[in-house]
TrEMBL record:
<dbReference type="GO" id="GO:0046872">
    <property type="term" value="F:metal ion binding"/>
</dbReference>
<dbReference type="GO" id="GO:0019323">
    <property type="term" value="P:pentose catabolic process"/>
</dbReference>
<feature type="binding site">
    <location>
        <begin position="145"/>
        <end position="148"/>
    </location>
    <ligand>
        <name>substrate</name>
    </ligand>
</feature>
<feature type="binding site">
    <location>
        <begin position="178"/>
        <end position="180"/>
    </location>
    <ligand>
        <name>substrate</name>
    </ligand>
</feature>
<feature type="binding site">
    <location>
        <begin position="200"/>
        <end position="201"/>
    </location>
    <ligand>
        <name>substrate</name>
    </ligand>
</feature>
<keyword id="KW-0479">Metal-binding</keyword>
<dbReference type="InterPro" id="IPR011060">
    <property type="entry name" value="RibuloseP-bd_barrel"/>
</dbReference>
<feature type="binding site">
    <location>
        <position position="178"/>
    </location>
    <ligand>
        <name>a divalent metal cation</name>
    </ligand>
</feature>
<protein>
    <recommendedName>
        <fullName>Ribulose-phosphate 3-epimerase</fullName>
        <ecNumber>5.1.3.1</ecNumber>
    </recommendedName>
</protein>
<dbReference type="InterPro" id="IPR026019">
    <property type="entry name" value="Ribul_P_3_epim"/>
</dbReference>
<comment type="function">
    <text>Catalyzes the reversible epimerization of D-ribulose 5-phosphate to D-xylulose 5-phosphate.</text>
</comment>
<dbReference type="InterPro" id="IPR013785">
    <property type="entry name" value="Aldolase_TIM"/>
</dbReference>
<feature type="binding site">
    <location>
        <position position="36"/>
    </location>
    <ligand>
        <name>a divalent metal cation</name>
    </ligand>
</feature>
<comment type="pathway">
    <text>Carbohydrate degradation.</text>
</comment>
<keyword id="KW-0413">Isomerase</keyword>
<dbReference type="GO" id="GO:0005737">
    <property type="term" value="C:cytoplasm"/>
</dbReference>
<feature type="active site" description="Proton donor">
    <location>
        <position position="178"/>
    </location>
</feature>
Length: 226
């Protein structure tokens, strides 16, 4: 494993957009590792979040990498825009990409880390032929589109299967969990093989968001062997 400690990526989707600057500073000053940026188009998912102008505004003040989760159809059209708006990691949905291998190459050519997101119904085995080409797999543990949903328990098995799929061919693969992450399920997810946790409502609805990030970062676990 290249990273010895798991990473925490608070989802800005759950921030208070009327005081976004304060929430950016909170993440900057916290033990969080990345900013998780959810871009939705109202077509791939039944919701619209925010677009590149807002992301640029976040990038201006963020002191940590922007981990961008594109929940949009035809993401190829926007990769350059995404990079130019401050992305370090760009994750596209498997279900939105006809030529996934080409899309991953295009992301890397821009100098970004390339990620693939899987909806809850998409089996990890579909990544077998590109697993070597991926820096990060984002496992959706809710159906994408909204924050604050209930965690899908089946996710643990998917994480284990994914870690097994990557074993020996991409041991540095980052496995990121997105949706319904709390202190209740964090340790089990990490133990199953995840190493990046996205948290939206759990962080921003907490009385003390910074302390909640600290607790997520401090979660202790023993990595299960694949
Ligand atoms: C949902 C987004 C998530 C969302 C997670 O489509 O991809 O990143 O913000 O929110 P919580 O942590 O509240 O489930
Ligand atoms: Zn997300």
């Amino acid at each position: 494993m290249p990273i010895t400690k798991h990473l925490i990526a608070p989802s800005v989707l759950a921030a208070d957009f009327a005081k976004l600057y304060d929430d950016i500073q909170m993440i900057n000053n916290s033990e969080a590792d990345w900013f998780h940026i959810d871009i939705m188009d109202g077509v791939f998912v039944p919701n619209i979040s925010f677009g590149f102008p807002v992301m640029q505004a976040i990038a201006k003040y963020a002191t940590k990498p922007l981990d961008v989760h594109l929940m949009i159809v035809d993401p190829d059209r926007y990769l350059k825009n995404c990079k130019d708006s401050g992305a370090s990691m760009i994750t596209v949905h498997y279900e939105a990409c006809t030529h996934l291998h080409r899309t991953l190459a295009a992301i890397k050519e821009l100098g970004c880390k390339a990620g693939v997101a899987l909806n809850p119904h998409t089996p990890v085995s579909l990544l077998a032929d590109v697993i070597r080409d991926i820096d990060l797999v984002l496992v959706m543990s809710v159906n994408p589109g909204f924050g604050g949903q209930k965690f899908i328990e089946r996710t643990y098995d998917k994480v284990k299967a994914l870690r097994a799929l990557a074993a020996g061919v991409n041991d540095s693969l980052l496995i990121e969990i997105d949706g319904g992450v709390t202190l209740q399920n964090a340790a089990s997810l990490l133990q199953a093989g995840a190493n990046v946790l996205v948290a939206g409502s759990f962080v921003f609805n907490a009385a003390d968001s910074m302390e909640t990030i600290k607790k997520l970062k401090a979660v202790d676990y023993t990595l299960r062997s694949v």
